[in-house]
Design brief:
Elements lengths: L2 H19 L7 E2 H11 L10 E6 L2 E4 L3 H20 L1
Antiparallel strand pairs: 1-2, 2-3
Length: 87
């Protein structure tokens, strides 16, 4: 994968995450999506995300543990995405 393809993928993930943050119809957020969003939005992603599988919307996650930490981080991502959408 070259740099242009990576940038295109990252932009698609961000656009999908904006729809996710509003609770609209979108693809599931998975671990890689959250890591890319954390890097893009300057949000630290805790190690507990190893338990994260996916999220269909901001109020629904599938995990194997550490739900509180994961929900807090996803809330930070959601809030930052919504602020960026207003700009």
């Amino acid at each position: 994968m070259n740099i242009q393809q990576c940038e295109k993928r990252n932009q698609a993930i961000i656009e999908n995450a904006k729809r996710w943050s509003k609770g609209e119809d979108c693809f599931r957020l998975k671990q890689l999506d959250v890591l890319i969003l954390g890097e893009t939005l300057n949000i630290r992603i805790p190690k507990s995300f190893k338990h994260f599988h996916y999220s269909d919307n901001p109020n629904h996650i599938i995990t194997t543990g550490a739900e509180k930490s994961i929900f807090k981080t996803l809330d930070k991502i959601k809030n930052k995405l919504q602020k960026e959408s207003l700009k």
